[in-house]
Design goal:
single chain; 185 residues; alpha+beta; outer membrane lipoprotein receptor (LolB), chain A; 9-stranded antiparallel β-sheet; 4 helices; 9 strands; globular
Length: 185
Amino acid sequence: MIKRILTLLLLFAPCLLPFASAQGLSEQAIIQKMVSAAEEIKTIQCSFTQTKHSKMLVGEQVSQGKMFCQKPYKLRWEYTSPRASSILLDETNKGKGLVGSIARLIMNSVAGKCLTDDKAFLVTAKEIPTGYEATLVPLKKEMKRMFTRLVLRFDVRQSTVTEVELHERNGDSTIIELHDIQTGK
């Protein structure tokens, strides 16, 4: 169940937000720039590498796959290795409960709303050498039980999110690196 939920959260990848470099911007200006750019995106597809770091296991668990997303509310997260599996989310399965909350969160991220939903997350943003970093601290009870924070890294040269980190309450973490990103407007 945890792996399924983590997989769904990893779908933050749709927060692929193109934006121009803007040195010296305030935190709020950085967030607004990312949100504005995300609103223009209609489709996203990419490859990903997911690395799970667990206190219980020796070594890392590495998975690879592809992600496809189309507004509104259509998403496919497909693992290609070490074993094939996929998760589909659309208008019909964005309901209530934890999985529904995660699905809504993912879909809202496509529209940039994940960075402005002050009831779901406390969001901070800063400039980093390669672009911007947004840290989302969960405020809703069901998310707080599992995660301490989510970190999105935006690369200015690629004008997209290139890395997502999920930090679990138990000390485990998952890093997702995005490759071959293609967006449509």
